[in-house]
Amino acid sequence: MFQLAAPAAWWGCGPELYRENVMNVFADGSSRMDLCNPEAAALTDVAVVDGLWMCSRREVWEQHPFDSATFTDFHFYDIDYCTELFRQGMRVCVTFGLVLEHHSRGSVNSAWLLNALKYQKKRRGQLPFGVAQPTPSQRAAMELKALQEFTGRLIRARFPSSLILQYLARCLCHNPFDRDSLWLAKLWLRGGARKKDNTES
């Protein structure tokens, strides 16, 4: 129901503000019903949805197709599509009138990180947005958590130092004495990012 300014997936706002209705089926045959619908609604307005299943009217799709030129991997095309529709004044919703079985697992890998950065660049000045209105303290906490998670992933994937420093600085600007942000700085100083790569910042 709220897409953060920090690089984050659709679940980045936390379970209080996302809505979900999917049966996840795993490789060993086990399954888990992931349902988040505290309002017990049939249809709920949100900010963005996951691309595992989306449907739109034909005329909407023709006017606002996926941006395959920017998002060349299987990540963030769905978030970007929803962002554009939301900005055009259209509704983005989760339906609880049917249940999907999801048999594949996504991966928050280097390609995901690169596409998150592309989304940040494309949507600069347009984030955050959503149908929910978190309080300033709630939003600050969500933004910091998302920034910390993203920065940690950059460090572990050994992205360039300049990029990691940029996101570390954003974490510390939120709260210079936050223990998790200081731990990330320590992790990076111990040898985190030495990989040179072409990234979108």
How would you describe what is shown here?
This protein is 38% helix and 13% strand. It has 201 residues and is of the alpha+beta class. The chain has two domains: 130 residues, no CATH class; 67 residues, no CATH class. It has a three-stranded mixed beta sheet with strand order 3-2-6, with no helix packed on it. A two-stranded antiparallel ribbon has the order 1-7. Strands 4-5 form a two-stranded antiparallel sheet. A hairpin with a 5-residue loop joins strand 2 and strand 3. The protein is globular.
Furnish the topology, listing elements before pairings.
Layout: E1 2-3, E2 20-25, E3 31-36, E4 43-46, H1 58-63, H2 77-87, E5 92-95, E6 100-102, H3 110-122, E7 129-130, H4 136-156, H5 161-174, H6 179-189
Parallel strand pairs: 2-6
Antiparallel strand pairs: 1-7, 2-3, 4-5
